[in-house]
Amino acid sequence: MAREGAKLVICARTPGPLNDTAEALRSLGAEVLAVPADLGRAEDLQQLVDAVREAHDRLEILITNTAHPKMGNFEALDEADWRAGFEELFLPTLRLLELSLPIMRAQGWGRVVNISTSAVRIPSSTYLLSGVFRTALASLSKSLANEYGPHGVLINTVCPGLYRTPLGESLLASAAERRGVTLAEAEADYAKDTALRRIGEPEQLGDFVASLCGRPGAHITGQLLTVDGGKTPSLF
């Protein structure tokens, strides 16, 4: 998005990493506003959207990406975990959509990309919370795409596989520990089940998301788009 010339507003709970990310984006020539915000707090989300409109008058693109939830199979999760999963994964995106979509509809133009997970396409007992609540978000996105499409607002869900990010490396480390293997062995084991025999680089995912928000994505909406190097075995 920075290389495409978008004016960026980014948020995170922790100011240090947030400001570091903002500086990295500015080094690419981007105009960046960094807003400390906790996605779990409705008032923070309102302040975030207000900051966007105050700085730029418009809100044209919304890209959502929530925290990674607790891992565990069905019997390892209790009701508190399910409530936390709803509040961490579903509710923040719902609130942002409630705040943003009326603005985009009034503008007659908007793009929404909800970053999801390949666990939506490949249900996993280990990533149960992530799969369940992000599947619900994918369903919501499809319904909203039908509702807001006539107003020029396009809404899609992107399902990444494993990428070489801090989260991706943390997941690999957890897998290595569970199985008693090295980090390199865990990565190789994941990669062998992909068509490309490798994990993804974050720039590749970023380029794809940017394309959805620009001219290449102008006729794409309501879709569940898997970007996992060919790991998902199903055709549909």
Automatic annotation (TrEMBL):
GO annotation (BP), single: signal transduction
Name of a matching Pfam family: adh_short_C2
An annotated GO cellular component: membrane
InterPro entries in UniProt: HAMP_dom, NAD(P)-bd_dom_sf, SDR, SDR_fam
Location of the HAMP domain: 17-64
Family of the protein in this entry: Belongs to the short-chain dehydrogenases/reductases (SDR) family.
Name of this chain's protein: Short chain dehydrogenase
Organism name: Plesiocystis pacifica SIR-1
Taxonomic path: Bacteria, Pseudomonadati, Myxococcota, Polyangia, Nannocystales
